[in-house]
Amino acid sequence: MVADSKLPLQSSNNVNTKASKTIEETYQKKTQLEHILLRPDTYIGSIEQHTQRLWVYENDEMVHRDIKYVPGLYKIFDEILVNAADNKQRDPSMDSIKVVIDAEQNLISVYNNGDGVPVEIHQEEKVYVPELIFGHLLTSSNYDDNVKKTTGGRNGYGAKLTNIFSTEFVIETADGKRQKKYKQVFKNNMGSKTEPVITKCKEGENWTKVTFKPDLAKFNMTHLEDDVVALMRKRVFDLAGCLGKTVKVELNGKRIAVKSFLDYVNLYLSAASKNKSEPLPRISEKVNARWEVCVSLSEGQFQQVSFVNSIATIKGGTHVDYVTNQISNYVMNAVNKKNKNANVKAHNVKNHLWVFVNALIDNPAFDSQTKETLTLRQSSFGSKCELPEDFLKKVAKSGVVDNLLQWAEFKHSKDLKKTDGTKSGSIRGIPKLDDANEAGGRNSDKCTLILTEGDSAKSLAVAGLSVVGRNHYGVYPLRGKLLNVREASHKQLMENAEIQNLKRILGLQQNKEYTDVKSLRYGHLMIMTDQDHDGSHIKGLLINFIHSFWPSLLKVKSFMVEFITPIVKATRKVNKQEEELCFYTMPEYQAWKESLGTNAKSWRIKYYKGLGTSTGPEGKKYFKDIDKHMKEFVWEGDMDGDAIELAFSKKKIEARKNWLRQFEPGTHLDHNEKLINYSDFINKELILFSMADLQRSIPSMVDGLKPGQRKILFCAFKRNFVHEAKVSQFSGYVSEHSAYHHGEQSLCSTIVGMAQDFVGSNNINLLRPGGQFGTRNQGGKDAASARYIFTNLTTITRYLFRKDDDGLLNYLNEDGQSIEPSWYVPVIPMVLVNGSEGIGTGWSSYIPNYNPRDIVANVRRLLNGEPMEPMHPWYRGFKGTIEKTASKESGVTYTISGIVEEVDETTLKITELPIRRWTQDYKEFLESVITANDSFIKEFKQYSDDRTVHFEVFMTEENMMLAKQEGLMKKFKLTTTVSTSNMHLFDSRGMIKKYDTPEEILDEFYHLRLEFYEKRRKHMLDTLELELLKMDNKVRFILDVVKGNIIVNNRKRADLFLELQEKGFTPFPKKTKAVEVAVAGDIDHEGEPELSPEATRASDYDYLLSMAIGTLTLEKVQELCSDRDKLEHEVEELRKHTPKSLWLKDLEELEKQLDEQDQADLEAEEENSKNRAKGGVAGKKARRPVASKNPKKVNKKDDPQVSEASEISSTTAMEAEKAPAVVKPKGRAGAKKKTKKDDSDDDDDDNDDFDIPDLRERLAKHNIDSSPDHSADMETEMFQEPAGKKGPAKRAAATKKNPVISLSESIGEINISDGELEVVEPAPAATKKGGRKPAAPKAGKPPAAAKKRGPAAGKQQKLLTQMLKPATEAEGSGISPEKKVRKMRASPFNKKSGSVLGKTSSSSLSSMPEIESDDDEEVAVVVEPRARPQRANRTKTTYVVSDSETEEEVNDDSDFEEDED
User: Fold this and answer.
1) The whole model's pTM is what?
2) Regarding predicted confidence, which is higher, 1295 or 892?
3) Helix, strand or coil for residue 181?
4) Of 281, 451, 508, 1348, which shows the fewest CB atoms inside 10 Å?
C-alpha cells in the first residue's frame, strides 16, 4: 500500500491499454464513411436522446413544450427538406413540395417539382450525376465560392448523411431536358446500391423525390416517436413559411394553410397569446426580396425564430443580430428619451423582443454542419436589411417602450432597496453626523434630525444643542444642494452618498407606506438653511426627495419642519437698553422700513445672508425660543402634491412656465404663521428662487446682459476702468461694489467671457483681453487663471453705453447699497451683437450673433421711417458661410459651414470650422477617424494657430472619390446649424417673452431707446440751464464783493447766509441721501460724518463761498461771462437737436469705432499671414493689437465719451509700485486737507446733483472754475457712481493716521506749455494754527530765476490740477489760487534725484501711491527747500495723490473741518 501511494495518478488510457494490442490495432485509418458512422456527432449532431423546450406542431397548432428527440435524426430529415427548398432558388418555377412522414412504416419522403437532377454520366467520375450527388461523399454543386448562391448546401455532405444513416435510401428524379427518369436504391447505410433504372419521361417533366428509412438503431430508437414526428411536422411548416405563397407545401397529402411568412409567424403568436388578455402585437415588414422581418414582444427573455435560405437557425446568428441591433438601438433611444433616468441599454431592449427573420444570404457559413448558428459577417450577406423608420416607430409604439420603463423602474426599486435603512440604535461610518442619543431607540419618535446647509450652519446648530440637549436632537450637514431625485438617473441615485446616508440616518425603507414614524430612527426632519433663495431651493429639494419615494410621510403630522432664522436684524439703544427687531423676509423688512419714515436714523441694520453670519450666542438664543423659529409643514390635500410636482417634474414644463408667468413681485411667505402647507411654500417661497434663477440665466432684451455681466459693467464704469487690472482683483472689486453673492470663480469666468474676442465668441468684446483669455483652439477653456491675466474697458464700450444715459437709469439697491441698474440702454441692442445662451427654470434661450453694422443700418432705416432688412447671423472673423436653410413659424434655421479645399487627388485643406466647433475637438475627431477600423483617412497634418484653422488631410484616391460622392462637408463634419426658434428674453418690464425674429427684438428696442433719447435731451437741457443760473449768481456775487456790497471777511457764516438769501442769490442744495438706517458692512455709508442741519443749509451757498479769494476779480467776471455765452450757445445747439438726430450722431461715432476695430482685425490678420508665410505659427504678435498700459490720450472733441479723469486716472497697483517716490518736505505744517478731484470734476463740482458726466467734460474746456471754490461738492453724492481707485484700503488707512495735504500745496502747480515744464509753488506755510496764509505775489521775473516765481508770460498754462487729482483746499486755508510758476529743478533733499518728470508725466502722475519719504528712491517732482517753522509738536504729514473720485466716499476726511494741532 505504501508503494502504491507513491505512484503517480493514472489516466484512463493507461487502464484501458492491453499489452496484447498490436501497433496496427492501436493506430487505425478509417474511410470517410466509416468515420461518419463511428463519430456521427461531428456531422449530424448528437445521436443521444435530448430533452429540450422547443416549438412543435401538433393538434393543428404550434405548442411550446419540453420534447424528447435525437438531434441527429432531426438533422438527416432537415437535410433532405432543405435540398428541396434549395431547388426553388435553382428553378423559380417550382411550385410544389410534398412531404410524407409515415411513423408506422418508418418511412419519410420529400418531393419537389423543380428541375430534376441531370440524368447523365459525369465524365470525370464515370457515374451518373444522381448517384454522384446522393451516393458519393464530398460532392456538391456549391463549391465555387466565386458564384454567389442563396442555397443551404455548402460542404458536400447534406443528403449523403441521410443516406448513410438510413437502412434504405431511394432517389428518383425526372430530367425533362433529357427526357429521362432515374431511380436508384441505396441500402445498408450507403454500403450497397442497385444499378440505376433509367426510363423515358415527357419533355418538361421535372421532379425529384427522396424516400428514406432512418436507421433507428443508430439513434437508439425502435420507432419514430411522437415528439420527433411533431418536430418534423413543425419543420415542414417552417418551409411553408419561408417559401411563401409561390410554393404549395403538402404534408401527408394535406396542403398546409400557410401562404406567407406572416401566416407562419401568426402560428406562434396565436399560441403565445392564448393565456393573455390581449393578443401579442405583430409588426411585419418585407424589407426587400431577400429579407422579411416580424417583431413582437417577449417577457424578459429574447426569443427568435430565424431562417437562412430555409435553414432553421435555431440559435440565431449574425443575421438576427443585424436586424435586432437596429430595433434595439431605436427602442433604447425612445425609452431613454421618454425617461432619461431609465438608463436602458440595447441588450435590455433585446430581452423584451421576439424577432422573426427570413433571409436569403449569399454563400452562408455556419458554426457547424448542424447549421444552428449563422457566422457569416454582415458585410458578406450580399444584401442589406435597413429597417424603415415607420417600421421602427410601430415597434416602439407596440408596448415595448412601456414594458421597458416598467422593467427599469422595477430594477431601480430593487437596487434602491439594497440601501434601505433600519431602525437601529446606533449608526457608524457616516462622516459629520452628530446622532441623537435616543435615535433608533424606544423614544425615537421624539427625536429630530436637523439638516443644515453646510458645515458652518452645523456649527450654529451644535451651539443650539447646548440649549435643547443632544438626547433628542441630531445634526447632519448637507453638502450644498440635494439631488433632484425626480429627474435623477438610477446610477445617480445609487452613487449619491447623501441620499444613501439620509436613508440610513432616518431608517427609511424603499416604497414603504408610512402611517406613523414609529419604524423610523427619527420622528421629525428639521430643515435649517439660509434665508436666501438658494436656501429655499434646498428646502424644496428635500421635500421633493421625500415626496418622490415616501409621499405618505409628508402626510404624517409634524414629520417635516423647518427652522427659520432672521435675514435682517434691526437694533437701536433706548435708555441704554438695546432693542432688537428680527425680519424673516425682505418684503417684510421693506414694509417696516417704509413705515419708519424719518425715524429710521436711529436703527442699525445687519443683513444675515447665511447661517454662518449668526454667532454662537445668537444660535443659542434661537434655540431657547425654538417654538418661535420652528415652522411645521402640513399636508392639506392633493394640491400639495401637485404643487411639488409642478416645481420639480420635467413633465410639467408648460405648467411651470405658466406658474412663473403669474408671479407677482412682492410675493412672500408669512412666517408669523405656525403651520405652512406645501403648496404655499412652493407658490410663495420657492417661486422666488425660480424667478431669481431665471433672471440669472436669461438676458434682458434691452442691454443683452445677464445680472452678473451687468454688475461687471457697472463696476467697470464706476471705477472708470480704463487702466488694466488683474481679473482676480477686479472680481473682488465687483463683489464689493455690486452686492455679488455667488462664487468668485463664477464671476471671474464671466469677466473672461466678456473679454474674449476669438471667432465664435463676442462680436464686440466689452472688456479688453490682456493675456491668455482663451482661443478658438479650445473655445475659451484654455484661458489662464484669473490671477495671471489683466483686463479693462475697451474704447468702444463707452460708445455703446453712453455716459449721457447713466443718470437716467433705474439703479437698484441691495443691502442698503446702490448697485447696477435694472438694465442699461446701449445705442444698439447688444443681445443681437454678441448673442446669448442660457437655461433657467422653465425656459432656455439661444440667440445667434449678428453683424453690428447690419443692426446700425436697420436702426437708421427705422429712424427714417423705412422698413427693416432681414438680418442673418454673423460672427466676427468667421470665413465660412452661413446659409438660410429652413423657415418655420417658430423660427429660421441656418446652416453654418466651414471651408474645405481640394489640393490634389489625395489631399484636402481645411481652413475654417463651423462656429463653436473648436480646433482641438476637430483634431481629436480626425484622430478618431484614423484609428477606426474603417478609416477613410491615411494621415493629417495641423498648421493651425490660436487665430486660424489649417488642417491638411491625406487620403487614397479611392477614398477621396467616395468622400466627394458623399459630400466633403458631411463626411468631415464641417457643418452645424443654428436656429432662431428659441429666442427668449426679458423685456423692459422684466417679463419673459419669446421673439420670433431678430427684427422683432430690434423693433421693440427701437421704441424704448427713442424714449430715452428724449429723456436724455430734456435732462441735458435742464442741467445746462442750471449751469447758466449758477454762472449768473457767481458773476453777481463777485461783482458785489469787488464793489463792497457784500463783505465776506471777518463775518459769521450765519449772517453771510442770511444776506445772500436777502439779496436773492439762488441756493443750490447739495444732493443728500434719503434718510437711511445705518447698515452693517455698507461701503456707501461706512464712516460718513453726520452733518448738522445748519451745515446742510450752509452748504447751499458753498458754490459761492468756497471760491478762492484769487477768483474775486474783474478778470474772473469777464471769464465767467465768456463761458456763459458759450454755454448759452450750447443750449441753443442742444435745443435744435431731436432725439433722432442725437441717436444718429451716436451711430456715426459708433461706426467710426467699428471701422477702427475692423482695421485692427485686418492688421492682425496681415501680421498673422506674414508670420505663417515665414513658416512659423503666428504667436502673440498676431493677436489683435491691445491697448497699452498707458493708452494714448484721446481728444475730447473727438471722443466725448472719454473724460479727462479717464485720461489721467490711476494706473494699476503694479504700476503704482514701480512709480518713483517723491520726497516730502519734512515739517511742513498744514491743516488736514480733503483731496481734490481732477479737473473733469472741478469744472462745476457744485452741480453734481444735477450734472451728468458728459456735461462736465464739455464744460471742462471753459476752465470756469480753476479756483478751489467747489470743495463743498465733495460732501455731496455723485449722481453717477464715481470711478474706482487703486488701493483704496491702503489710502484710507493712511488718512486716518496722518493729516493730508495736497501735492499742489507741497510742490506747487505744474504748468506745461510749449514743451517746457514749470512748477507753481505755493507760499511757505506760516506757523499759525489752522493753516498757512498765502504769500504776496512777487513781481514777475524770467522763469529761469529759481526764487522769483511769477506767471509765465505769454504761455497758456495747464495746471497740475488738470493733470493730477490733488487734494482740495481746506475751508478757510487761505491758499492763493494765483497761478504762480517756476522752472523745475533738482531736489536738494536727494542729490540722486535727476528729474524724471517726463517719465512720470507720460505714465500719468496721478497713478502714484502714497508719497512717502525714502532717501534711496528717485524723486519725481521736487522743490527747493525753504525756511520752515520748527518741527516741534507737528504731526507727521502724508502726501497723497488722489487718482479717483471714489476716495471721497471711503476716506474719513470728506468734511471740511480743520485739524487742530
Assistant:
1) 0.59
2) 892
3) strand
4) 1348
Q: How far is CA 256 from CA 87, 249, 308, 874, 1374, in A?
A: 19, 6, 21, 70, 126
The C-alpha cell at 481 is 444642494
Per residue in 497-515, pLDDT (tens digit) is 888 889 889 988 887 888 8
- The residue assigned the cell 429597417 is 387
For the domain made up of 419-565+610-690, give the CATH fold: Rossmann fold (3.40.50)
61-69 and 50-58 beta bridge pairing: antiparallel
- Contact between 1146 and 802 under an 8 Å Cβ cutoff? The reply is yes
Rounded Cα distance, 153 and 90, in Å = 12
pLDDT at 418: 66
* Residue percentage of the chain with pLDDT more than 90: 21
Domain with CATH 3.30.1490 in the chain: 566-607
Q: 1061-1095, pLDDT tens digit by residue?
A: 888 888 887 665 444 444 444 444 443 333 333 33
Q: Which residue, chain included where needed, has cell 415616501?
A: 550
Measured between alpha carbons, how far is residue 700 from residues 755, 831, 989 in Å? 19, 8, 10
CATH architecture of structural domain 260-417: 2-Layer Sandwich (3.30)
φ, ψ at 174 (rounded to 5°): -120, 120
Hey, how many other C-beta atoms are within 10 angstroms of the C-beta on 73? Answer: 27
C-alpha neighbours within 13 Å on the C-beta side of residue 870 = 8
pLDDT value at position 19?
54
Grid coordinates belonging to 1116: 474772473
pLDDT: which is higher, 1291 or 130: 130
Roughly what angle, to the nearest 10 degrees, separates helices 638-648 and 653-661? 100
CATH 3.30.230.10 residue ranges in the chain?
Answer: 260-417
Catalytic residue among 514, 788, 799, 1103: 788
pLDDT for the residue 1264: 35
Residue 1455 pLDDT: 35
CATH class of the region 30-257:
alpha beta
- H runs (alpha helix) in 719-743: 727-738
CB-based contacts of 637, cutoff 8 Å, min separation 6 = none
Hey, what CATH class is 895-977 in?
A: alpha beta
For the question of residue 1103 being annotated catalytic, the response is: no
Q: Which amino acid is at 616?
A: G
C-alpha cell read off for 380: 458578406
pLDDT mean over 916-921: 93
Write the DSSP assignment of 27-88 as a string of letters: S----HHHHHHHSTHHHH---S-EEEEEEEEETTEEEEEEEEE-HHHHHHHHHHHHHHHHHH
Residue 1377 has pLDDT above 80, yes or no: no
Sheet holding 899-904, edge to edge: 899-904, 907-912, 951-954, 939-942
Number of Cβ within 10 Å of residue 674's Cβ equals 11
Residue 161 pLDDT exceeds 70: yes
Task: Check pLDDT > 70 for residue 8.
Answer: no
Measured CA to CA, the distance from residue 71 to residue 370 in angstroms comes to: 9
- What angle do helix axes 533-549 and 638-648 make, rounded to 10 degrees? 120
Closest CA to 523 of 442, 454, 640: 442
Cβ atoms within 10 Å of 666's Cβ, excluding its own: 9
The class of domain 566-607 in CATH terms is: alpha beta
According to CATH, where is 3.30.1360.40 located in the chain?
Answer: 895-977
Look at residue 927 in the predicted model and tell me its pLDDT. 92
Query: Which phi and psi (to 5°) does residue 452 adopt?
Result: -110, 160
HSE at residue 745, side-chain half, CA atoms within 13 A, is 2
Q: Three-state DSSP class for 995?
A: strand
Comma-separated ranges of CATH 3.40.50.670 domains in the chain: 419-565+610-690
| Measured distance CA(75)–CA(43) in Å, rounded | 9
How far is residue 1002's CA from residue 301's CA, in Å, rounded to a whole number? Answer: 60
Over residues 36-60, the pLDDT tens digits come to 787 787 788 888 888 888 888 888 8
pLDDT classification of 16: cutoffs 50, 70, 90: low
Contact 452, 458 (CB under 8 A): yes
